Amino acid sequence: MEVWLVPLVAGLFGLLFGSFLNVCTLRWPQDESIVSPGSHCPKCDAPVRWFDNIPVLSWLVLRAKCRFCAEPISIQYPLVELATGVMWAGVFAAHGPTLEALRGAVFLTMLFGISVSDARFYIIPDQFSVGGAVIGVGMSFFPGGIEWRASLIGAATGYGVLWLVGAGGTWLIKKMSPGRLEEAGVDQAMGGGDIKMMMMVGSFVGAWGVGLTIFLGSVLALVVFGPIASLSKRLIPLGVFLAAAAAIAYGWGPQMVSWYLTQVVGLPA
User: Fold this and answer.
1) How does DSSP classify residue 29?
2) What's the average pLDDT block by block, 10 residues per block, for the chain (269 residues)?
3) What is the CA radius of gyration of the chain?
4) 72 forms bridges with which residues in the sheet?
């Protein structure tokens, strides 16, 4: 029974956290409180009643419309809730009812929140990055995962490496293409949110995970969004791709690093 019951219960909790994540990703980037005012329709400001706030189900029952003004309700709400529920179910299916499963679910939820915020607002709220780093170090004391020293080293590595990449990139762009940054409406090649985000990532996956995340995230960003950015002159929401890479690093990082060291570098297994 535990084979399906644990992921099912975890998935239900994930739906609830997904509902809360919607609030965070919409309000934190705009410096709004997630406590007050309560959930309300963004069009008519009518308060959302508790039975209209059930994850996924309420959106379907209301046919994606506000009960009061009948204006459309964004599909983002059920998609974020459903995706978070699936993530929680998957992590607990993989790790069972353990503290490591909880740590992984929290990490993936924060990465997902960063993706949604960065894709929509080009902002990574400090609540996800700095607050997440504190949570990551705190959860490193849980059994079964990264230990606290590796978590602290990973956090410092994530912040330091991406800060150096940003500083070096800024210097190089200003040297080779004067005015390019100003044309894009920024003054730095790397946003501060991305740098602080990698501090959070490092606290969960350690220094090796940081290196893998930066490499995979850069490749994904160039391949997926690079052509779009070159044509539209839009900035690349790097946090989206770093978040995807960090999720890969959490799930398969040790195996990928081991394969690289043994098959490419040639170290003994």
Assistant:
1) G
2) 86 97 96 92 90 95 94 95 97 95 98 96 96 98 93 97 84 65 57 92 96 93 75 76 96 88 81
3) 20
4) 65
Summary count for the chain: helices (H), strands (E) = 10, 0
d(CA 26, CA 22): 6
3-state SS, one letter per residue, for 210-240: HHHHHHHHHHHHHHHHHHHHHHHCCCCCHHH
What lies within 8 Å, CB to CB, of 183 at 6+ separation is 233
- Whole-model pTM? 0.90
At residue 125, the 3 state secondary structure works out as coil
* pLDDT tens digits along 161-194: 999 987 887 667 666 666 655 555 555 656 789 9
Phi, psi for 15 (deg, rounded to 5): -60, -40
Scan for tokens 């990264």, then name that residue.
146
| Enclosing H/E stretch for 179 | none
Torsions phi, psi for 13 (to 5 deg) = -65, -40
Amino acid at 5: L
Give 185: exposed, middle or buried? Use CB within 10 Å, 0-12, 13-18, 19+: exposed
Residue 244: CA count within 13 A, CB half-sphere: 15
Residues 6+ apart with CB under 8 A from 182: none
Interval 46-60: pLDDT, tens = 999 999 999 999 999
